[in-house]
Amino acid sequence: MILLKEMTSDQFKQYGEFSYNNFLKEMSLATSKKIEDIKVELTENQDQNPVTTNASKDLWRVVEFEGEEIGYIWVQLNYESKLAFGFDIYIDPDFRGRGLGRLVMNQGRDLLKEKEISKIEICVFHANAVARSLYETLGFTEEKFNEETQQYHLFMNI
């Protein structure tokens, strides 16, 4: 059974730092930019930096499976527009390939419905074919592709 549990402040620090560093690595691979250059760009463009924008509207949950922490989700909520942006979903590699990502996404969608959110948007790197396939089977639709960052912008009405 999958549980999405609220994070403690220690978990938030741990997963927030992991998410940021993982994003930097993926962006570096996708764009061939150095990680330090990406950090500078994010610092210069604070309004585009998810770590510094609307943190009070963020929804962070630890993913538990059979009593073990196996990942997290990070979603930013905009109650006025009833829109959510999924910044990150992470499942430990040892637990991938078992359908747990699908279960997490379905529970996350149910959680967003409870919060009266009607649309979710996500971005996924071109190189992440497994995630792109999962999102397609869940009903996400491609809105656009960013050549510079090699990311697909997807959405789904919920």
From TrEMBL:
InterPro entries: Acyl_CoA_acyltransferase, GNAT_dom, YpeA/RimI_acetyltransf. It holds the Pfam family Acetyltransf_1. Keywords: Acyltransferase, Transferase. GO terms for molecular function: acyltransferase activity, transferring groups other than amino-acyl groups. Residues 2-158 form the N-acetyltransferase domain. This is Acetyltransferase. It comes from Halobacteriovorax marinus (strain ATCC BAA-682 / DSM 15412 / SJ) (Bacteriovorax marinus).
